[in-house]
Design brief:
By secondary structure, this protein is an alpha/beta fold. The protein has two domains: about 200 residues, Isopropylmalate Dehydrogenase; about 130 residues, Isopropylmalate Dehydrogenase (3-Layer(aba) Sandwich). Helices cover about 40% and strands about 20% of the residues. It is built from twelve helices and twelve strands. The radius of gyration is 20 Å and the shape is globular. The two termini are about 20 Å apart. The structure holds nicotinamide-adenine-dinucleotide, 3-isopropylmalic acid (IPM) and manganese (II) ion (MN). Nicotinamide-adenine-dinucleotide binds next to helix 4. One of its GO terms (molecular function) is 3-isopropylmalate dehydrogenase activity. Its EC number is 1.1.1.85.
Amino acid sequence: MALIAILAGDGIGPEVTAEARRVLEALDLGLTFEEAKVGGAAYEAAGHPLPPETLEVAGRADALLFGAVGDPRFDNLERAHRPEQAILGLRKAFGLFANLRPARLFEGLEDASSLRPDIARRIDMVIVRELTGDVYFGAKGRGTTEAGLREGHDLMRYDEEEVARIARVGFETAMRRRRRLLSVDKANVLETSQLWRDVVIEVAKDYPDVALDHMYVDNCAMQLVRDPGQFDVILTGNLFGDILSDQASMCAGSIGMLPSAALGATGKGLYEPIHGSAPDIAGQGKANPCAAILSSAMMLRHSLGLTEAADRIDAAVAGAIREGARTGDLGGSLSTRAMADAILERL
Ligand code: NAD
Ligand code: IPM
Ligand code: MN
């Protein structure tokens, strides 16, 4: 019997994760659930955003269902105690280097997208984002220059193995789709990116059936808004992938629609909406639970091999949206609970 660790976190994290759990329970898959605190909630209860008892539950679990972390009350703590360290720490602790962020437009959401309907309709891509390296995990610090000015620095760095393993995930993902991989970097300026590009080209030799292209990240940001239908699989680093996926979400209707999977070398994965704790709407029952619910489908597919149940969740979300179920972010007025009910009715 598979054990799912529920790490709901802060803000709307608990609100959307509760709905994802309800959907999983309705499918009667014999899963067991254990909850543990992360982020600001864990800091308040245990003095640390990722306490040992949470790591212990996560360590035993077959998969982790994560909500979101972040709380403005803790934005001025020293960095090691800030809520966001919980998600960074989990990714690192379990070697979850590969982040899949699929973005597609659900039928009926053309009007929610910031793009013209004829452009929005064509979005169907996966962003493959490296998740345990880059400027996120390089040496960082604050200090004073010789001239007495305050300074800050974060080292952007990758080694060739880190690039090669995420590149393989990108090529494998492309093989299961339309066989087109676009590697996004800033090789015209950054040495990290030149290494990235060199290694991706080397790995491409093992995937002769995949058409590989390269694009600079600034152009990619523009092309995402101009014509997102041109993309199949985007392969990119940690920082660029973070930014491009939030942008892609709005092309697809809302940040409340995009799920993600964080995977490593074993079957264990962490599944979470790409959005954060949304302090501006937390506690009001307004959050869109679709990203969390779709993340639970990714969990069934990638960690538990329950493909059919995953397909049922995806179809129920698509059905509810097609028939007009909408939370506020999508231009409607359903509560988080009512949106999930609309999905549950179609399971
Ligand atoms: P955010 O994603 O939390 O919110 C951005 C905007 O999108 C807000 O207006 C919010 O109301 C809206 N939004 C987000 N999710 C929504 C949903 N499901 N339904 C409807 N509207 C939704 O980003 P932010 O405001 O930059 O960050 C808030 C906090 O979340 C910060 O502390 C940040 O560090 C954290 N964060 C955490 C994660 C994570 O846990 N993986 C991801 C992103 C941000
Ligand atoms: C995300 C978030 C995180 C990231 C933060 C909260 C550390 O923005 O999951 O997209 O930057 O990876
Ligand atoms: Mn983000």
